[in-house]
Design a protein that fits this description.
CATH topology: Rossmann fold
Oligomer: single chain
CATH class: Alpha Beta
Largest sheet: 5 strands, parallel
Structural class: alpha/beta
Helix content: 40-55%
Strand order of the largest sheet: 2-3-1-4-5
Shape: globular
Length: 248
């Protein structure tokens, strides 16, 4: 397949994954293309720090066409939030079958705490675990075999985790892709303020030892409610990720 989609959560872990894919140097990398459809067509607000790039398509069909056109000249990778397309993509099986699919999970408590620091108005939908589960189930129903990985796997052993991912989607292992400089990649200008941590890190960092639950509890509702809602979906997806990790 020539198109590789990663369905994930916002902020540093998924952004670092994307940065590694950029450092490979053998793919065209698109940064959350369906974000433009969700926030400029179906949503009534823009999240803080989003500065849309002029000329970027904003309809599902227009973004679909952009991805397919890009793939005509070589392999393409993009990461996106599952909730952007959880309804539209299963209704478009011809497009879905032209790409590989993988899911990157993050603990909902950690994800909610991270999100709250950047956008205190984020919604339950935007935390994303329920939509990940729905999209995963729909893709399996269409005959796909998505890989599921966790942020813990990625942060603790990026080389092994990316080796599994690249093998799953048919890409060779490239050691040089695991470090980067602080230059702002193409496509990040629209959301640069969200990615300063990754830009300055130079590589994926091991997880810090913090009490995310206590920090989130201190913030209280609605953040704790959002995280609690998504815990069952995360638990089901994490079980899939752990099973796959022991199989491959």
């Amino acid at each position: 397949m020539n198109i590789h989609a990663l369905w994930c959560h916002p902020r540093s872990v998924s952004t670092a994954f994307e940065r590694i894919m950029r450092e490979r140097g053998d793919l065209s990398v698109l940064h959350e293309p369906f974000m433009y459809h969700h926030y400029l067509t179906t949503k009534d607000r823009l999240f803080p720090g989003f500065k849309p790039e002029p000329g970027h398509p904003t309809t599902y069909d227009g973004i679909r066409e952009m991805i397919l056109n890009t793939a005509r000249t070589g392999p393409v990778f993009f990461k996106d939030m599952a909730y952007y397309v959880a309804v539209s993509l299963p209704r478009d099986p011809e497009f879905a079958k032209q790409m590989s699919h993988a899911f990157l999970l993050r603990d909902p408590v950690e994800a909610a705490l991270s999100y709250a620091k950047k956008d205190a108005e984020f919604t339950r939908l935007e935390l994303g675990h329920e939509a990940q589960h729905a999209l995963y189930s729909a893709l399996v129903g269409l005959g796909h075999d998505p890989l599921v990985i966790t942020s813990d796997q990625l942060r603790r052993d990026p080389q092994t985790t990316l080796r599994r991912y690249w093998a799953h989607v048919g890409l060779e292992y490239l050691e040089h892709a695991f470090t980067w400089d602080n230059a702002v990649p193409e496509g990040w200008q629209s959301v640069q303020s969200w990615h300063a941590e990754v830009l300055n890190s130079g590589a994926i960092k091991a997880p810090e030892v913090t009490d995310s639950r206590a920090e989130l509890d201190a913030l209280g509702a609605p953040f704790t409610d959002h995280a609690q809602h998504h815990l069952p979906f995360y638990a089901q997806m994490r079980e899939i990720a752990e099973t796959q990790a022991h199989q491959k």
